[in-house]
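Hey, can you fold this?
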Amino acid sequence: MLFFRQYYLGCLSHASYLVGDTSTGRAVVVDPQRDVDQYLEDADAHGLTIVHVIETHFHADFLSGHLEIAERTGASIVYGRAAEGSTQFPIDTVADGDVIELGDVVLRILETPGHTPESISIVVHPNGIDSVPEGVLTGDTLFIGDVGRPDLLSSVGRTADELAGQLYRSLRDKLLTLPDEAKVWPAHGAGSACGKHLSTETVSTIGEQRRTNYALAPMSEAQFVDAVTQGQSVAPMYFSYAASQNRLQHELFHDEELRQLTLPEVLELQRDGAVVLDSREHSVFAAGHLRGSVNVGLGGRFAEYAGEVMRAGTPIVLVAEPGTEDEARTRLGRIGFDKVVGVLADPWHAFVDHPEHVDRLSRLSVPAFETLRRDTPDLVVIDVRNPGEVEAGTIPGARAMSLPSLLERVDELDRDAPTVVYCAGGYRSSIAASLLRSHGFTDVSDLIGGYTAWSTTGSGGSSVA
């Protein structure tokens, strides 16, 4: 009998799967996150033995848990055949039409290149190879409402147009030949940078996607290539690092106790090049924080945005609300940012007792921002949203510098000029403002409510970039 469970990690918009046959106890994990206890616990609870970890492709947006599962269970690691020879660890490869028999439950492999050259999809047959498919695990080939972007750095050496052409054929010649009632189980949902129109739904059917997914509408290959390569967001800076690490025999994830650091220890680490990463909510951060620290609120897409504003391998000191430190460290580990050297002990008292090390972040309401714009001729306004957002409307005179590109472009800006940053609603602009201040900018504010607040107050209207 088929055992099937989806695990959805909202902070990374990531879906992974445990698929097994309860009659034989054989199971596989597909596209696992790096902290793997949940798969092992569920397998144990249902009498399943994990025999394979199947990766639908080399992921760029998170560090996969294939090494962790293999080390703890002895499972083999399986990729599509185009991955052969490109990993530092042993893998088994599968080709189009290959089957993995778990018992009555049979997994049939489809090679579906396009998002990456080695991408595969996995058709789940619940009662033998001739049974009607229950569904298909599509990885990043087919999402709910979208398809995988073909331009990410995990595909170094292949052009976006070339991969988009392969994706067109993979979708039409492979996935769309499946029955309309077959379920679609993707690797990502809304919020992921691996596509641009992903749905908040985490399961669909081939038939529903055939009817509603813009990329599956009747069109020529050239039209498809144009549709899927245009309007993509800027990929976070850490994507190339994660894609590379997923090929390597890297260090395993360990849930160790965080070292509690005194303020003098934190200041010394900061002087030596560590990033002080403050995961508190941005209004709390604005009221008082350690000078030079960078704010990425844990309540949002914490790991993804942290990976946009610091380089992989940088030592990290956490400042966090008490009780959230381990969650912050785990989220960073999911993208491979393992070098968390400790956490500031009792930050509230540290800041109260040592106000000489505390800064406040200037936050402007829309009226205050308009007054500043009127009275400050040399004001620099920076829009840190993605290009597609900017195209829909921007504040006149603003300079577009998406958050993922800001760290690399910081030297293009005048550190002494009065500067205001904004995003759509305020989360990303708080990150950007703190990043600029950590790099020596002397007069930085962020716009409360972002472009949404500005455009709806009467100050904005419909100014278009």
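Oh, and this one too while you're at it.
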Amino acid sequence: MSQNSFDEPIVEAEASSLFRSNWFRKTILVVLIVLLILMIGVGMYWSREPALVSLSQMEPGSSKLVTGQHTTGALMFATRTLLDKPGGYLTNDKTPPSVFLDNMPSWEYGALVQIRDLARSLRNDMSRSRSQSVENSYLAKAEPLMHFKNDSWLFPPTESQYRKANEEFQGYFDQLGSTADAGTQFYARADNLREWLTVVEKRLGDLSQRLSASVARSRVNIDLAGESGAEQSTQSPGVVQVKTPWMKIDNVFYESRGATWALIHFFKAIEVDFEGSLKKKSAIPLVQQIIRELEGSQGTVWWPVILNGGGFGLFANHSLVMASYISRANAAVIDLRELLQDG
């Protein structure tokens, strides 16, 4: 038997092994590409911001709500949206594709801060007749739960605490509409609204400053302006340079989007629950103007990334546009608070 007769099976076996090896590598590559495309698609879907809804859509099926149920319903709606939007609550997710997303977690944080502020105001002010009155038991349980660590993955997960908080909000909501429990109340007084507006004013001012700092600029130190005897802990320069880090610009932008999204729904509810106090001061147009300015901040971003061009440069600066809407809304909030404060 010739030598070639022995070599041919060996060559065929090597060729078959090489073919299987190449086929396996190509299969793995295709699977990885498909998985990558799926992850990108899912990530894009989960990164879509929730839409704005009307006041009636926040509590579907509810009719003839009593004073306070609109505000409580808006608070519950914002919390549910935070947990049940596409992808659920993403801030504490540790698996792909959530771990690669940062815009939506920033949006969630912005909305969460506003939810926490309203929950605290509801507990400390709006549900109490006077400073010496007893606080509502439902809100006393709910408000600390909403301040639970926002990125806890397990033991317990953040979502479980926020759902428990929403169940307590639901208990307060139900008791407001019950004639059997006269102790559960919502007091739509101007002073209660002013307390919440003071917090909103500071939140919007902070967001406006951080958004504007997307472009480096110098700021005159006015921290102690207005009082000659005022002091601070340590000395600070008369002129300071402010600049939001480049890697944080999109985070601040989407945090602002989440905050303004939540505030739009809260002000829609406030307009109804505090109608009497607002009408007395002819302040309803101010509330409507606040809502309109905040809605302007929710416009579609027609670019895949947040641009950071100069103030008068060739490219847009999305942060400055957002800061403009927020600043105008904040100016209206200040006017509203001062109007409610005057006799």
